[in-house]
Fold this sequence. Notes:
Oligomer: heterodimer
CATH architecture of the largest domain in chain A: 3-Layer(aba) Sandwich
Largest interface: A-B, 41 and 29 residues
Order of helices and strands of chain A: EEEHEEHEHHHEHEHEEHH
Number of helices of chain A: 9
Low-confidence stretches of chain A: none
Strand content of chain B: under 5%
Number of helices of chain B: 14
Mean pLDDT of chain B: 90
Largest sheet of chain B: none
Number of strands of chain B: 0
Radius of gyration of chain A: 18 Å
Number of strands of chain A: 10
Largest sheet of chain A: 6 strands, mixed
Distance between the termini of chain A: 33 Å
Mean pLDDT of chain A: 90
CATH topology of the largest domain in chain A: Rossmann fold
Number of domains of chain A: 2
Strand content of chain A: 15-25%
Amino acid sequence: MLQVERLKKAFDGFQAITDANLLVPNGEVVAVIGPNGAGKSTLFNLITGHLKADSGHIGFKSEEITNLAPHKICHKGLSRSFQLINIFSTLTVLENVQIAVIAKHNFDRKLFRPAKKLLVEETLAVLESFGLIEFKDQSCSSLSYGDQKVLEIAIALGSKPKLLLLDEPTAGMSPDETRRIVNLIKKLSQEEGLSILLTEHDMDLVFDVAQKIMVLHQGCTIAQGLPEDIRNDKSVQSAYLGEAG
Amino acid sequence: MSTNSSSSLILQEKFRTYLGLGMAVAGILILLAIPSLISPYYVYLLATIFTTALLATSLNLVLGYGGLLHLHHAVFYGIGAYTVAIIMTKTSWPFAIAVVLGPLVAALIALVIGWFCVRLRGLYFGMLTLALGQLVWAIVYRWNALTNGDNGIHSIPVPEFLTSVNSVYYTTLLVLIVSLVILYLIIKSPFGLTLIATRDNPMRSESLGINVKRHRLTAFVIAGFFAGVAGVLFILVERSVAPSLLFWNKSAEILIMCLMGGLTVFMGPTLGAAILVVLSMIVGLYTEYWLLVLGLLLLILVLFLPQGILGYLLKSRNNKKPSMRGEN
């Protein structure tokens, strides 16, 4: 589904990504882990086109997407959620997801038809599956932090992606809310067969949901494989798990 | 939510819609009757308000709904007006062609200026609109052969039926209403909703597959087109045009109209335009320092009424944040 090869990115001489390699097979949940500053968010921003890579290659469904504009990458079937809540603050919960659905169908430039009734069924279906339907007419800024975080993911799902990128989906959440996200990820993966790439600090969550794990250390992929192999990998232990524990 | 409460909510909403429609119809009837009730000078003043209201509302598409700091919208107003003036005085083309070309040329120049500006963000966007706008002003000011330079163009011929004060009044009123309806529909369309989304969060919009630059450019061109329509109306009202029409302080005036009425309310700029046009007339009777008064007004607005007059009224009525989508 997604291949990243020998990716490099520097900011003003600081080499944020030195050699990132990643493979996300179709229908699997893959986690990228690494200490703070390892370059996880930079890697995500490179994949989604928010940053331009210096060299290397990113392929999606056997198509080259390296350095394409973010909106073009989204239309190819790759959608993301953000680490910090990143929603449309003056819109209602319904409209937040509706924007994604409208853009997915390329209706965002239609000038003379009311938006109010456009693609509402499809939008409601997304809200329903995320348990947000009771809030649909509320302003999204009135939601609790946990619900906003869920909405954050719901918006990404509104684009009906083939591959979903989740940047620290449970950052700042209570254990209850975290469980809700874990169940959501499992449901999306198992029931809908969605491929998911995520970064996360919560190791229990990572080993719970991920089928493959990639370890990023100082911008470099030091290991990639099944969770048990990663757990036993010596270089990972010294670089990351040892340090964390 | 029970079916009962939701159906009563729908009824309530329907009632509000009908009330709004009723008030709009009553308002239009009053506006239709007005010319026979007041002196021609005030009829002329109202036509000026209609023209300015369209200009301010067109700016607000970009400023309020698009969240773009557009600092020089008067340029497109001036281009619409100058296009008509030049066609009517330098060519033998019919008036109808001039009326159609005015807004189109304005939209075309908006496309050129906008193409550069949407590449920048925030204040940089604003500074570039200002710089490119002043460039257009300088061309109009200096190109004597075409524009008559500083002197402007006067006694512009218009068709016989558009020469009386009342016919100008009804024409500007009709064009204003039609344009406002179109602009309202645009704001309520998927395009409008997406425009608000790009204002709230451009990065997220991009990640959802929206071409933010192209979207902003489209809004900029639509706004330029309607400013051009307002420019055509200006010719009907004044029958003359001068470079001051597209000088930057004119743009500041429109910006203040939007701020005064409320950026987040569809009719806000219309209210702001009405207040400022009347005020400038009154102030003009006593002093020539209109800009000084304008500056003081801006100060008061920014300090005490940041959401504008209509925005403030709606907020105190609903006792909550006014809708950012201008459905009121």
